Amino acid sequence: MKTFISPDYQQLSEAVAKNVIDCVNAKPNALICIAGGDTPLGVFAALVEAQKQGRVDFSQTQFLGLDEWLGLGKADKGSCREMVWSHFFDKLTLRDEQICFFDGLTDSPQAECQRVDGYIAQHGPIDCIVLGIGMNGHIGFNEPGASLNNTCHVIDLDPITQTVSVKYFGTARDVKQGISLGLKTILAAENIVLMASGEKKADIVAQTVNALASNAIPSTLVKTAKRAALYVDKAAASAL
Ligand code: PGA
Fold first, then answer.
1. The whole model's pTM is what?
2. Which residues are within 8 A (CB) of 63 and not within 5 positions of it... i.e. 6 or more apart?
C-alpha cells in the first residue's frame, strides 16, 4: 500500500479530494463512499469548492453512506447523516436518488441492511471509498475481530468507539450499536483511500502500516485490497 504524507491537514484533504475528483472525472456515474467523522471534513470542503470551480461534476455520481449510529437521525448533532449532509450533500444540490444512506432511526435494522445491500448489488462495486481510521483501527464500524465475510450488518460498538463518540455528540449518549458496510463490501472497492490526521492517530497509523494484515486491526486489511493508498498528514505519520 502506497503512503502519501502531506505537510498539513489542508493539503492532506486536497490530496484525497483529488483522488475522488479523478475517479468521478474518469467515470461520472461512479459509486462513491466517503466516511463521516472528523477526518474527511476537509475533503468535503475541497470537493464542494472543486464543484463550484467546475473541476468536477457530481450530477451523475452515486453516493453511499458508510455507517450510522443506531438510534440517531439527521436531527442528532454528530450523527453520520447530520455530518455528511451539513458538510457535503446539502452543498452539492444532489437529487434524492443519488444518495443511499443508512437510516439510523429504522425500526428494522435487518431490513435496512438488506435495502443497502440491494442497492450495492445494483450499483456496486464501490468505485472509490474514503475511510477514516478509528483509534482502535476500525474502518466504518468494523471493529477489531470483525468478520471478513460481512456485508451490511449491525454491530455492538467497541468501548473505545463509544468513548470516542462523545466528540461528535458534544455529550455522552447511550449509543451501543452501529450499522455499517461490512469488510467484504469495503475491501471489494475498486479504489480505497485510507486517511488519518493528527498526532493522536500516529500510533494506529504505524500499526496499520507495520502489522500483518488481520481483522485484529481492521485498517490493516486495506493492504490486501487490489488498489489502496494511505493518506496522512505529517503529524499522523510521526510514528512511521
Ligand atoms: P474520526 O473517526 O475521523 O472522527 O477520527 C474515524 C473513525 O473512528 O472511524
1. 0.97
2. 31, 32, 33, 34, 89, 94, 98, 99, 100, 101
Instruction: Give the range of the structural domain holding residue 105, as residue numbers without chain letter.
Output: 2-233
Whether 240 maps to a domain, the answer reads: no
**d(CA 86, ligand 1 centre) in Å:** 17
Taking only the tens place, the pLDDT of each residue in 98-151 is 999 999 999 999 999 999 999 999 999 999 999 999 999 999 999 999 999 999
Cα separation values, 57 from 33, 36, 79, 131, Å: 16, 21, 27, 22
67 CA distance to ligand 1 centroid (A)?
11
Catalytic positions, written as ranges = 67, 136, 138, 143
Distance 56 CA to ligand 1 centre (A): 26
CATH number of the structural domain spanning residue 137: 3.40.50.1360
Beta bridge partners of 233: 6
For ligand 1, which residues put their CB under 6 angstroms from it?
37-39, 132, 134, 138
Domain annotation covers residue 150: yes
Range list of H helices, the chain: 9-26, 41-52, 80-84, 90-92, 109-123, 159-164, 166-169, 183-187, 202-210
Q: Report the alpha-carbon distance of residue 66 to residue 211 in Å, rounded.
A: 24
Cα torsion angle, 169, 144, 120, 49, sign: positive
